[in-house]
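Schema walk-through. Below, the input block comes first and the output block second. Nothing else is stored per chain. Lengths vary across the set, and this one has 397 residues.
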Amino acid sequence: RFFGGYGLPCLREYFCAAQLRPLICLCCPDYTAGWKNVEGDTVKTIPIKAIIADTKLQSKINLADEPILQVMISAWNEAIRICGLENASKLLRWCAYDSDFIPNQHDDRFKKWISKGLTNYYSFVHKGTFQCFETLKKKHDLCADDFFRFLQIRNYFNKELKVHLHNLRFVETFILLTKSKPDKTISRLYDAILRCKKDSTIYIKVKWEKEASLTISEEDWGHICKIPWTTTRLRVWREFCWKNIIRFFITPKQKRYQGRGFTCWRCGRDGANHFHIFWDCQTIQQYWSQIHNHLQNIFTANFPLTFECIFLCNIPVDNMNYNDQKLLFILLAGSKKALTRKWLKREPPTTDDWINVVKEIYVLERLSFSINVQRDTFYKIWSKWTEYVKPVMSDFS
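--- output ---
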């Protein structure tokens, strides 16, 4: 829950949770306060809970006449955007008012379902599954002629919302807090936001896709995220590999928000983002080409010289044995470390820098395997590397 040590919270996420609290109080029937009586819980007869997750609906009803509520909802929208919860929050929309659900524009019967307890789309879900009509009919006293409306909602849900069911913690927390008098609201919202961000790294995938102009399937992304934690036995190197995947290192493009220059320190290109700094910069093209050639020579295999393959480690390794796979990912980790050791320096890394980094990993890996009485396994993993670099590094043994 905390980062930075000594219980230091993620300040941005904590600020978002604090910004969301007033809306939670406004939506909770058990919460009483003078300001709430003034604001009310509807806008032009539409419940506030039906408005907050629907930006199109917000623009239609014109919140300019409700300045305080407008500030709250603006804070909500900004918090949801910052935390990457736009898709998950769609489950909070009410089927009777959802601006994207066309049938409610021609059929007022959906509004009558509100009194029966069918409000937001999550109210149709039980244990991650959209409930059948017979179950909903019994629980919410629906009529037989509501079946077609049920089919309309289920069809819309399956097409637009079902994919977001994996990210429910925030939605569940929000609904729970609005059902009873809020208790520890900010801390519970903060925890839900962190859990959502922890469980989903799709937003990181999207950033890589945008910068590198590529498409990564969710299956491949899951594989990419798994590799850092299986590459070596050394936690420090696992952490380093993970930092590369999650874009931990601050680039010139990010520094522009600090009023500082945002040109690449190697080539001088403006707006140098993560993809440029780690891969696309012309100054390091030769370095990556040399790494690529060495890898193909070591494993007598052909690897695509692409960002997704070499940097993100999404390499087809089905034809490689376990030991070669381990060694390959270790060597790729070393290639990225050689880059970060030349951070803010004009000169690019060299293959000698790479070999020296790999030697450091080699020494620590050998110690780890020795402690666990597994030196034979260690040498099986590293044999191809030691044979390959003997001509230039005689102290590998």
